[in-house]
Amino acid sequence: MTIEHGEDAAPASIDDVTVERAAGFAAVPDGYARLWTPHRMAYIQSHHVEESSDECPFCRAPRLTDEQALIVARGELAYVVLNLYPYNSGHVLVCPTRHIGLYDEATEAETAEIAALTQTAMRVLRETMRCDGFNIGMNQGRLAGAGIAEHLHQHIVPRWSADANFMPIIAGTKAMPRLLGDVRDEIAAAWPR
User: Fold this and answer.
1) E runs forming strands in 17-91
2) Residues 40-95: pLDDT tens digits?
3) Alpha helices of the chain — where are they, by DSSP H?
4) Contact 17, 9 (CB under 8 A)
5) Is 153 assigned a catalytic role?
6) Which residue of the set 39, 48, 99, 153 is catalytic?
7) Global pTM?
8) d(Cα 107, Cα 140) in Å, to the nearest integer?
């Protein structure tokens, strides 16, 4: 077994464990597979900029083009947008256009449109993504896990029988097989007019 220490660490032997300097490992296979996702840097960096903005991203999105905002469909009172940090490919959010934070603040008309958009999203995702099921839900308030607690949004996450593995649990990494722009284009094209 080899344990890496800092660059200044001297090689040493402790029972069956050999400790070597990390500098000697450059370009040497170490038993780890690397999942290179350089396209994620654009989202990571833009997220940093968004956090510094005082404007709600769900209020800003409808003023952008559908392609810029990753909106796949618009209703009269709500819209469907891809999640910038999806759990799975095709992970969409249904958001009321009006800035409200909790489900019980939505009007009857808003809840009806959110429900209708959710049903349509399920049909379109089943057709385009060929998914086996869905996780659907809302996190109400920051304490409940809402990333953007100030603006109501419902998650619709497509699921497949083989979409989970050890990476999210052990490595804190989720492999995304498709780019967001490609997914947005496919879902938007399949959305009923």
Assistant:
1) 17-21, 71-74, 78-82
2) 666 556 654 444 467 899 999 999 999 999 999 999 999 999 998 888 889 999 99
3) 40-52, 57-60, 66-69, 108-129, 180-190
4) no
5) yes
6) 153
7) 0.68
8) 16
168, 86 in Cβ contact below 8 A? no
What phi-psi label fits residue 70: left (phi over 0), alpha (psi between -120 and 50 degrees) or beta? left
8 Å CB contact between 130 and 118:
no
In the numeric block, the tokens 């400790």 are attached to: 19
Taking each helix axis from N to C end, the angle separating 180-190 and 108-129, rounded to the nearest 10 degrees, works out to: 110
Domains in the chain and their CATH numbers? Answer: 56-190 (3.30.428.10)
Amino acid identity for residue 14 in this structure? I
Q: Are 141 and 102 in contact (CB under 8 A)?
A: yes
